[in-house]
Amino acid sequence: MSVAEAEQSPEQEPSPPPSPGGTALLRGRIEIDLGARLREFETGDTRVFATLDQQDPGRPMMAYVCRCGVPVRNKPLAAFKGKMPRNLLSVVTDGLIPVPGSDELLFAVVLEKPKGVSAAEAVAERGKPFDERTVGQEYLTQFVVALRELEAAGVTHRAIRPDNVFFTDAKQETLLLGEFITSPAGSRQPSAFEPIESAQAMPDGRGIGTMLHDTYALGVTLLSMLSGSVPGEGRDPVELMDERLTQSSFTALAGSFKAAATILDLLRGLMCDDISERWGLDEIDAWLRGRRFATKRAVLSQRAIRPFAFESRDHTYDLALAAAFARHPKEAAKAIASEEFLDWLRVGLQRPRLGDTLIEMLGTQPQGKRDGPTLPGKIDPVTIGTILLDPMGPLRRDEVSIAIDGFGPVLATAFTKKDQNLKTSIMRLLASEAPKEWIKQRREVNSDLSSSTGIFSRLLVVGSSKALGFGPERCLYELNAGYPCLSPFVAKYWVSELPRLLTALDDAAATADKSTDLLDRHIAAFIGTYLQQSDKMMMTFSNTANQDKAMLSLELFAMLQARLDMPNMKNLTRWLGVQLEPFVAGFHSRTRRDYARARIAVAQQKGDITLLLELVNSLRSDSSDETQFGAAKTKFADNRVEIGELASGSRKVVDMGRAMGAKAARLISFIMLLMSAALLIIGVSP
Fold this sequence. Notes:
About 50% of the residues lie in helices and about 10% in strands. By secondary structure, the chain is an alpha+beta fold. It starts with about 20 loop residues before the first strand and ends in a 5-residue tail after the last helix.
C-alpha cells in the first residue's frame, strides 16, 4: 500500500473504471493494454495500464485511465503535454479511448514510465534513510528545478510525497516528481503532507493551493527520506491534528528526529505553519547557496486564559476548538449561539471584538443553550464560529470542510456518488455569504483572494436559481473547467466541450425514444456555462406559464448549430422534428399542416436544425390560420342558425318565405317589363 492509499477510506473512493481487457489505440499509434494493470502506480479512482508506442517501442510509458466524472486537472495537462520538463514526469499525450466491446469512451493520460523505484521503495530496499548531504544538496536541488518548472507554467503539483517521487536510474542519482493530473489537487495526499490550512479540508476539497503548499509537502517528503519513516503514519488523525494545531506541524511530525542544525532549519522553514514565514523557492535557493536563516517554531493557535467545555473536553486553544466544532456540527451550532461561547471569546480568549463580530454575523444576541439556532443570518452558525476561530482553515458546514478553491472537485464527487446530503451542504455554503466572509477574513494575508469575490457572487446567483440551466448543475460546470457533461445521454462520450456535445446528442438521438427529453438539467447547465447567451432564453422558458420544452430545445440546439457551424445533425434534427408534431397538429388548416410536415421533412433530411427553427418562427408569426379559422367558425355558426330556423317551421321562417316570395315576384315582374319594352322598341305588338 502506498503512502497516499494509507489514509483513503472506502467512502472516499468512487468506483474506478473497469479493466475490460483488450487493447485500445490512442492517436493511431499508442497501444494501451487494458488487461495489464500497473498497480504500483495506482492511487484513488484511476487505473494505470501498460502502454506501447508503435513508433518508439523502446520508450517506457504508462496510461492513467479515467471514467467520466473524474475532475482531471486540465491546466497542468495543457501546460506540460508533449513537453520534456526537467525533473517532472513527462506527459506524452492524452485523449479518448474506446472500451473494447462497448461504445463507452474513457479518458487516458499517457506518461513516461519511471525506470527506477520510488523514494519510498528506495528507503524500504536500503533498510535505512538517505544521508543528509544527498538529500539536502543533490535531491533538494532537483526538487527546486522541478518546482521552478511548475512555477513558470503557473500551476501547482500538490502530490509531492515519497511514493510519488521516482528515480530514473539504478544508482538513484536523478529523481522526478510523479503524476499530479488525474485527480483533484491534494486529494491523494496523506493529511501530514498537507499544510495546516488545507489538511483539515476534505481530500477532494483541499484546493489547487499555491507554491507554498508544495514547499510544505516537500519539507515533509525530505523529513521522510531523512528519517526513513512516513511522518504521522499510524497515529490517530484527530490527535495528530490537535498536536499540529497546538504545538506546530514540525514538532508534531518530526518528533524526536535528530539532524544537523542546518537541516533542521531547512525543515522548520519548509514546514512552518505561518504562511507568511513559510519558505518558498527563493529561500530554498538561498539556503542551498549557504545562507542561513533564523527559524523558530510557529504556533498559530492562541491559548485562552480559561478553557471552553465542548463535547466532554476542555478546549484551551482557538484552532483546536474550531476543529472540534467541525467534527461535531450539530452540537457546535448550539454552542456557538450560546452566551457561554460569547463570554469565552471576550474574556477567556480576551478578544472582545471577535465577540462583537459573532453577534453581527449571527444577526441576533446569543440565546443560551436552551435551543439551537434557526440560522439567524445567511451563514450557518458552525461556519461563522469556525471562520472566526480559524480564518486560515477551510470553510466548514454540516459534515463538509472545503478550501476556498476546492468547491469544484467536491461538488463533482457529490454528483458522481449521487450523494444528495453532500450536494446540499455544498450548495448551502455557496448560496450564503460564507465564501465572501472567509475571503474578507483572509484578505490581509493573501490579496490575490480579492478576485475570488466576483466568482462567488456569480455562483450565488446561478446556484440559487431553480431554472433549467442553473442550480447545482450549473455550479458544477462553472467550477470545473473542462469537466465532462454528466447527462446520462452523453456521459459515455466524455463531452468536455460544446462541439462534442452536439455530436454526442446527435448520436444519442439516433436511438432515443420520441418521448425522451434530451434537454435535461445537465445538458442545459453545460450549454449555459459555455454559451451564456442562452441564459436569457432558459430564464424566459422557466418563467413562462406555458412551458413548451420542445420549443426551448429547438431554439437552444439551433443556436448551438449556428454558432459552431456544424451541419448534418440528421439524427438530432429528426428527433426535434418529431417533438414538433404537437405544434404542427395544432394548426386548423390541413393544408398548413401538410405544408409544415413537408418542410420539416426537408430540414430533417438536411440535418439542419436552424431550418426547423426558421419554419417554426415563420408559422408562429403568420396569424392567417387563426384569422381564417375564426371566419370559418363565424360562417359555420350562421349556417347552423339558418338550418335550425328552417327546421323549426317558426313564423319567422314563414315571414322569411313570404319576403323571399315577394322578392321573387318583383324580380319576375321587372323581367317581364323589360321584355315588353324590348318588343315595343323592335316594333312588335305584345
